[in-house]
Amino acid sequence: MTRGNMTTLIVHEPRQVERRLRQEFGTNRRTLIDIVAVAVAARARCTTNSPRSAGSYYAWAAATTRLRQVFRPEGWDKGDGDGIETVVNHERKIKIAVLSTDHGTADINRRPKNRTIKGPASERVVELNNQMELFTLGEMGPIAESPYSMWYVCIYDDGSSVRAELSKPVTFSGGFITQFSERIFVLQDGDWEKVVLTLSDKAPEQYDDLKIDVRRK
């Protein structure tokens, strides 16, 4: 099912971002930035001798771990339905996972795309998002499946620039997410440099488990 003419809601102004995160997820931008910072630090562990896929795996694993560390004390549960590692809020009917995405991340003129091909499980959850959106618009009947929406913390890190957004995908094709119903920009161009200055004071203790300096060189 596709929605070719669907309009994506993009939330990018800082105050609106904070308001939307608090309203929909009960969280804030600082919490999500912390998750992104851990991913960046984990990727930085890799050297020229590391396997090609090591950076992406380390970043995803560390960010997923931190996602659970910060959300579970707030009433979210750990989830792994269909093999997708998430946090789940049963009251809000929301699931959140971590996704490594490309240069379209937090770019108002482009859309993010997952860096690696995803399988049938990801396609199913994206399709359910699509069905839920159509149901909200009154374009279809009741949804047969469990009505949990899936959101992704999309992280782009090319070694010098870092951007991130929390977004809800609704179309999927050929193993890649192709469209979103809503995108909430967490880190835009130029934001990471400001974040690093703040993190540099916290890095020795907050990121001690990673043994990495999160500052860019």
Instruction: List the helices and strands in order.
Output: EHHHEEEHEEEH
Major sheet description: 7 strands, mixed
Rg is 17 Å
Please count the helical segments.
Answer: 5
Helix percent reads 25-40%
In short:
The chain is α/β, with parallel strands linked by helices and 217 residues long. The protein has helices spanning 14-25, 29-43, 54-71, 120-136, 191-206, and strands spanning 9-11, 77-79, 86-89, 94-100, 149-157, 162-173, 176-187. The protein is globular, with a radius of gyration of 17 Å.
Describe this structure in words.
This protein has 217 residues and is α/β, with parallel strands linked by helices. 36% of the residues lie in helices and 23% in strands. The protein contains five helices and seven strands, in the order E-H-H-H-E-E-E-H-E-E-E-H. It has helices at residues 14-25, 29-43, 54-71, 120-136, 191-206, and strands at 9-11, 77-79, 86-89, 94-100, 149-157, 162-173, 176-187. Strands 1-7-6-5-4-3-2 form a seven-stranded mixed sheet. Helix 2 (29-43) packs antiparallel against helix 3. Residues 135-144 have low confidence and may be disordered.
